[in-house]
Amino acid sequence: MAMSRLGQRPTEVIKRSVTLHFRWNGRSFSGFEGDTVASALAASGQQVFSRSLKYHRPRGILTADYWDPNLMVQVGDDPNVRAGHRLLEEGMDVRAQNVWPSLRFDLKAANSLVGRFLSAGFYYKTFMRPRWLWPSYERVLSAFGPGGRVDIDSPDRYHDKRYTHPDVVVAGAGPAGIEAALAASKAGARVLLVEHEHSVGGHLRYSTRAAEQVALGKLRGTLEASDVEVLTDSTVTGRYEDNWLGIVQRNHPIAVERLIKARAKMLVVAPGLIERPYVFEGNDRPGVITSAAARRLINLWGVKPGERAVVFSANDEGDAAADLRDAGVDVAAVIDGRKGHRINSTRGSRRAVEGVVADGVRIDADLLVVAAGWTAPTSLLNMAGDRPAYDRYAARFFPSNPPDSVLATGGLSGDGTLDELRTHGAATGRLAAARALSVAHRIQARTARARAVGGPEPDWAADDRLPLRRDFHPELFRSDTHGMIDFSEDVGSKDLLAAAREGYDSVELAKRYTTATMGSSQGKLETVNTVAVLAEARGENIGEVGTTVWRPPYAPVSLGALAGRVFEPVRVSPIQPWHEANGVRTILAGQWVRPDHYGDPAAEVRNARSNVGIIDVTPLGKLDLRGPDIPKLLNLLYTNKWSNLAVGKVRYGMMCGEDGVVLDDGVTGRLGEDHYMMTTTSSGAGVVWEWVENWLQTERPDWRVHVTPVTSAYASINVAGPKSRRLVGRVVRDVDLSPEGFAYMEVRSATVAGVAGCFMWRIGFTGDLSYELHVPAGHGMHVWEALIEAGADLGVGPFGMEGQRIMRLEKGHFIVGQDTDGLTMAPSTGLSRLIRLDKENFVGRPELGWSGSRRLPMIVAIQPDHPQTVPDEGCQIVRGDTNEILGRITSSRMSPTLRRSICLGQVEPELAIGGSRVTVLLASGDRIGATVMGHHAHFDPAGERLRG
Amino acid sequence: MADALRFESPVTRSHPAGESGGLTLTDSSATVKWLVRAFDEGPAAACLQTPFGSSRQDPSGALVLGSRPGEWILLGAQDAVARVVESLQGFGSGDFVTAVEWTHGRAMFRVSGRHAPRALEKVCSLDWSDPMTPDGAVTSASVAKVICDIARDDCRGTLSYLVLCDRSFGQYVFDALIDAGREFGLTVVPAGLSFSDTQDTVG
């Protein structure tokens, strides 16, 4: 079959004035704008485009559209491109996939020599034993894996996402689909019309009938003038609950692909029909094409599909003889399937048809055009819960009982003249619009923000459409010979019959056992033939065998489209620009971008211990509490008592879940009579807020407390170090900072560096004299810079999270989530004095009440014998030389202050006594001795510095 | 004294301005914002006259958003918002009412122009059609995976939406909105404008 370019055709979509150059397997070719990759190659005389999956048989054009399983190619670094659909572009580098060393001479074709052993279930049977050989099998099999090459170094490309809420989505823009869209739009509905192909019109695009071309022109003109939003080169890939639709748009100007998530009130399914192949010996030889493929090649791209053709047709639409003759193809014979004539086989080389055997007679030809019947692509109906029913008279499936919000029209629903199909489409559009009105009324009435609707919900429109008729079509699936059923997966009719003989005669089992219908065309070409052969094997009819369930996607979707645009929110403090300008190394803590250090965290610690350091602790969770019942709330949520916290005082508290496990901790200060500020850990801010709201809204709705998350409303700056009082005193004028005037664990409202509305408290997470300033965030940078400027002579310097973590470890403060885990109950923290079981009740109290009788691990401070050895966090604490686990290191650092390694860890309770000796199993496998300290603090255990 | 200080916007990275006019993004984070909480069927709610899901321009000039049941966001000039807050003080005994200044806690952006719904539907799953989100509508939704309060606040007949988010996400959401609007020829208006100024940038 030597294809070539024809003279200009009236229906062609190519622009002959624009020549595009491209490469195919390294050789230069050219085509025209509007060509698909396949049509350009075909016009250049190429016959073989790929090799089959298992047997590596040469494959040529079959359907010449999106579904063509033989036209999968690699374009640049893009694998599995559908050459029957992808439009040609200047400079494209197109290559065949899964061939070695070349498409023309593929050594993998040796598989066909052992084809008899590669039948259905070959992998399952062959590679099960011995199990130890599986790694070797895997390596070899992966070399034979199908598909193109994925280059992990390919640059990221932009995939877009969009949400939309049309009243009506019409899937398929053939004549019925267009009429449905127009009628729905005319009735006032917002309509989205989605067409798989590059332009609307369905089969009219490649029809040479004058009346049909006139009709197409009018439809396109009306559509253009309408309010219908038209998406071409786009596919409705899935229908989910409540008409939630996934749509992939492939021709967006700024994105490779766009995933559209549409919530449609009504879905109209109008995909038309897909011509299915016929099964006979040699049906996969290049030169065997469907009648629609012949018409597309001739009338859309001006490609002459062969020189001498045999036409096998079982329907009027599929009789392409006239188109072929018009294109100068010699039609050697027309075999009419309706009269019982059959194709038996093709003859020729492996690369081309040279003859066709029909009814036992050989006819010389290089092209066989087949029109054996139609597959109704009912996928979207299946996804909506319908189970389409088979009609033997029409030899195809029809919708059965789709939900009320899904309507079918066009060839999927029945047969008819063009006018009858258009009329049915228009009636469907009107019905969809009317029903969408009811749905819209219902949604609007239930949505607070929506415009108020008047009157009752409109009645649900009854379906009074006149059904389309069903024309007779002979049941033509397989001839008297065997051939290919699934061209994507290389599954033949013999494979299916063998599977049935082995007991896999249920269509769902046979599908999975043979992989028939699981390839790139997703059953559009294969399903009916698969079912027919199984029916033959079972001695039943197709209706009795049934079909597999078509699930999303309707067509394969790229991973890029599914990922869409990746949103990864990050949070920054108002001081972040300063950090970035001053050499910060950031760390991502949850969603927060935080300063980890500024080059030398140990030096930052030394400076803070000897002078004064400032750290941006804005992510610290902050909840503004207002109302008279706050003490009740705090008593409920914290393990300690809160009834007597005076205004101006701050108290530390620990929160537990109902299981007694530590949930979070922090300090809460009383700013006014009915005004408190609660702090949480940075990572726990969101969880605690939701937790507090949950208690208030569900358990204690009678309590008068309002909670407002204000974490980001304040820039929070901790000023730590022996000179911190002097520094704070330079920027705060309205607060007595003396130890007596502003003592440890107290809070004051303040004006800081001229910024009113601040509050500050004296607490000491770092273990040093420190003040935590909370400043309205819109002035955070101003205050930070004021501190830097005011403290220049005091040696002020910033420190980051790493410095803070070192200092808190020196002080022995545990971090929830670091030194505790999902099983750490409150008594394990060593803060039993804060667990007040004499309170009336609090969250976790029952569990904590009896936890005293349990052997709970304890958090302790640990110092390795060797002061320069820092065990990794997570290292196990074991008994002597054994592997008996007695605990683990939860935090460890080299202390710049103490110049030795320090740790926190969890150990068995009998070891939680100062002076206990433990063994730490290092990551290297070495063991070191260590001593449990008598208290958590490695540094200033008496707390003189922070209280100073 | 603090009032004399410049408000530092959460948006600190500059972006080139576009050419179109069909879509404008304005950083109006400096707008004074207060959060009011009260019983949603109590006297304060009756005084605010703004049910959940709707908004109302108060005679003082403040914009009142019914952001959640029993929760309102007040936007506008300092004195205008203050007047509304003061009007709620009298309900202390009969109703539990609290008001928290939120100016520094929320970033706020105005997305305006005929392409605004198309830009928003790239980052938010809501239905922006007129019946579902009419002028004056208020809702909460994920914008580029960040929870935001959104109010439709048309200005002189031009579609306009206010998007409020936690301040720490401000730069991220601003960048996401710019990205969403790029295909529509987005114009970016510099930060630091007052609420009335941002209304003037529309149309």
Keywords for this structure?
heterodimer, A: Ubiquitin-like (UB roll), FAD/NAD(P)-binding domain, 7 domains, six-stranded mixed sheet, 50 strands, 23% helix, 27% strand, B: 203 residues, alpha+beta, Alpha-Beta Plaits, five-stranded antiparallel sheet, 11 strands, globular
Low-confidence residue ranges of chain B: none
Domain count of chain B? 2
Principal-axes shape call of chain A: elongated
CATH evolutionary superfamily of the largest domain in chain A: 2Fe-2S iron-sulphur cluster binding domain, sarcosine oxidase, alpha subunit, N-terminal domain
Structural class of chain B comes to alpha+beta
Largest beta sheet: strand ordering of chain B:
8-9-10-7-1-11
Helical stretch tally of chain B: 5
What is CATH's topology name of the largest domain in chain B? Gyrase A, domain 2
Structure report:
The complex is a heterodimer of chains A (948) and B (203). Helices cover 23% and strands 27% of the residues of chain A. Chain A contains 23 helices and 50 strands. The longest helix of chain A is centred in the middle third of the chain and has 29 residues, at 418-446. The model of chain A has no long low-confidence stretch (mean pLDDT 95). Chain B has 203 residues and is an alpha+beta fold. Chain B folds into two domains: 18-30 and 104-200, Gyrase A, domain 2, CATH 3.30.1360; 32-101, Alpha-Beta Plaits (2-Layer Sandwich). In chain B, strands 8-9-10-7-1-11 form a six-stranded mixed β-sheet, with helices on one face. Chain B has a five-stranded antiparallel β-sheet with strand order 3-4-5-2-6, with helices on one face. In chain B, β8 (138-143) and β9 (146-152) form a beta hairpin. The longest helix of chain B has 12 residues, at 170-181. The mean pLDDT of chain B is 89. Chains A and B meet through β9, α9, β39, β42 and α20 of A and β6 and α4 of B.
